């Protein structure tokens, strides 16, 4: 049974650590690969990224597999969360072997951050190693194929999508070949997820599966957003992060291609994207459970599916988000303004 989440890729688990209240509105999300790791890749297209260990994923470099990907709030400060994940992996002997003792490992933990500083009221309230460890422990404790909490959790706790509250979303699909392709996204975009003339979500318009909100509802939503925008002093230094996972046996170059085309899924659901104050980043994890035949065009279905599940995950993250009103600002949710259906 599938749950329409990144955990539909066998062996992949997700854990969130969430901090709210007393100046906090932030958190960390860890996508944990199966034992033995997964082929990893990354494609960074935002002009203001905050990342760690992304060079290790270059197909020209030595690292072959990674054990976890960290998505975190706290801007560049929050990248410290990866240290807690590294420590947890080291304790279990997971990482790149660098010495004769099996305990001599260096875990390679790629990470990327979103800007949410001050959104809870305290600029210095941001994730660190303790938060990262809590998130990876939550991932390890989850059941195989478990549902993934969405909305204002983990790295999506303080996320904002344009003038709306953002959050975490996830989605998956199974191709005719039996290969699973799935995504988890943290929607923290400087661009808008809403078509300004109608109030429809861009990601749903692409899918062609909804009727636009009633005009009176959209007009009321616009008035509410205009009112709240004046109360939010935090600059729009935002980022959309994604992890696309598959059980296909991809090479490192193929995995990097998948990370690149998955950005199309962001561009369909957020406008504009990849600006100078965005840090838009997509990671790929390929577990290799399904071997490819070697036909040069076999990858096409996987590439197309990667973009599709990213778009759906963005829609789900925005729809699952809850409104926030506190000392750091006021961000209505899409569901509050337009309804959940």
Describe the protein in words:
The protein has 341 residues and is an alpha+beta fold. Helices cover 26% and strands 25% of the residues. It has helices at residues 81-91, 129-141, 202-207, 215-229, 252-269, 299-320, 334-338, and strands at 13-21, 24-32, 39-44, 51-52, 68-72, 96-97, 105-106, 111-113, 160-161, 164-165, 167-174, 180-188, 239-248, 281-290, 324-326, 329-331. It has a five-stranded mixed sheet, covered by helices on one side. β11 and β12 form a beta hairpin. The longest helix has 22 residues, at 299-320. The protein is globular.
The SSE order reads: EEEEEHEEEHEEEEHHEHEHEEH
Helix-strand makeup class: alpha+beta
User: Helix count?
Assistant: 7
Are there runs of 5+ residues with pLDDT below 50, and where? none
């Amino acid at each position: 049974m599938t749950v329409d989440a990144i955990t539909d890729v066998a062996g992949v688990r997700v854990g969130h650590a969430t901090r709210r209240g007393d100046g906090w509105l932030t958190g960390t999300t860890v996508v944990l690969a199966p034992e033995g790791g997964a082929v990893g890749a990354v494609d960074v297209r935002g002009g203001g990224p905050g990342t760690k260990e992304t060079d290790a994923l270059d197909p020209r470099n030595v690292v072959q597999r990674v054990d976890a990907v960290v998505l975190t709030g706290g801007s560049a400060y929050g990248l410290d969360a990866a240290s807690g994940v590294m420590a947890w992996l080291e304790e279990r002997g997971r990482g790149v072997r660098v010495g004769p003792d099996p305990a001599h490992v260096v875990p390679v933990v790629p990470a990327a951050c979103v800007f949410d500083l001050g959104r809870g009221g305290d600029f210095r309230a941001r994730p660190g190693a303790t938060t990262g460890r809590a998130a990876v422990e939550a991932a390890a404790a989850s059941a195989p194929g478990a549902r993934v909490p969405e909305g204002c959790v983990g790295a999506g706790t303080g996320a904002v999508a344009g003038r709306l509250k953002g959050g975490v979303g996830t989605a998956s699909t199974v191709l005719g070949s039996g290969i699973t392709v799935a995504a988890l996204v943290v929607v923290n975009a400087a661009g808008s997820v809403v078509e300004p003339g109608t109030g429809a979500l861009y990601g749903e318009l692409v899918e062609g599966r909804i009727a636009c909100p009633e005009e009176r509802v959209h007009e009321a939503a616009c008035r509410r957003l205009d009112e709240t925008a004046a109360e939010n002093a935090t600059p729009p230094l935002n980022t959309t992060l994604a992890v696309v996972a598959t059980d296909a046996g991809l090479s490192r170059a193929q995995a990097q291609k998948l990370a690149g085309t998955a950005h199309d899924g962001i561009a369909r659901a957020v406008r504009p994207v990849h600006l100078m104050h965005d840090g838009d980043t997509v990671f790929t994890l390929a577990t290799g459970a399904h071997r490819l035949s070697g036909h040069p065009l076999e990858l096409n279905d996987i590439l197309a599916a990667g973009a599709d599940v990213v778009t759906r995950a963005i829609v789900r993250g925005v729809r699952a988000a809850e409104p926030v009103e506190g000392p750091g600002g006021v961000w209505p949710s899409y569901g509050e303004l337009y309804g959940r259906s």
